[in-house]
Amino acid sequence: MSNEKLMTHSINATNLADILERVLDKGIVIAGDIKIQIADIDLLTIKIRLLIASVDKALEMGINWWQTDAYLSTKAKETELEAKNTDLLKRIEQLESRIKPAAAQG
């Protein structure tokens, strides 16, 4: 590879890295709507929104949905399991409290 081609490749990689860093730092939003109509009657509307940003920038903007999604966060999964466990224990206590008076009478 010639020195000139190597230099061009290096500059392109640097430019791409700079662009990516800027996009992640500032964030970028891509939005679009798809609408299906027949005779001016809306049959289907799909709103597409895409936000590309770093995690820090997203948190700064108040976007943190991945922290509470059990599929993406082990902490959220543990919290979900704890809530289910607590609910099940309450239901068991309720069922046992119904059974005890019936057993005492019989």
For the structure shown, list the relevant keywords.
alpha+beta
- Largest sheet geometry: 2 strands, antiparallel
Distance between the termini: 93 Å
Topology as a string of helices (H) and strands (E)? HEEHH
* Beta-strand percentage range: 15-25%
Count helical runs. 3
Arithmetic mean pLDDT: 82
Shape designation: elongated
**Which strands sit side by side, in order, in the main sheet?**
1-2
User: What is the count of structural domains?
Assistant: 2
**How many beta-strand segments?**
2
Protein architecture, described:
The chain is α+β, with helices and mostly antiparallel strands and 106 residues long. It folds into 2 domains: 1-53, no CATH class; 64-106. Helices cover 58% and strands 22% of the residues. The chain is built from 3 helices and 2 strands. It has helices spanning 3-26, 55-60, 74-105; strands at residues 28-38, 41-52. It has a two-stranded antiparallel sheet. Strand 1 and strand 2 form a beta hairpin. The chain is elongated and about 85 Å long.
